[in-house]
Design brief:
Layout (H helix, E strand, L loop, with lengths): L6 E7 L11 E5 L1 H6 L4 E6 L4 E8 L8
Length: 66
């Protein structure tokens, strides 16, 4: 669960789009990043490709909001 004031965002590989994503994870976006309007971008391990790749922030799909 995200802390109060932070929003959950989907992180998907940079070279994929939201419809054909093979792996994703959810990350809490803090208030400071939300205020700045900055998009998150981080390098993490992709188990399907077995290597580290860049992940970027995308909107949560409508069915995942709860």
């Amino acid at each position: 669960m995200a802390k109060r004031g932070s929003a959950l965002v989907w992180m998907i590989p940079e070279d994929e789009n939201r419809r054909s994503v093979s792996y994703h994870f959810v990350y809490p976006k803090t208030k400071s990043y939300t205020r700045k309007g900055a998009k998150l971008r981080m390098r993490k391990y992709h188990p399907g490709k077995r290597k580290h790749v860049w992940f970027v922030e995308t909107r949560m799909p409508p069915y995942a909001k709860g």
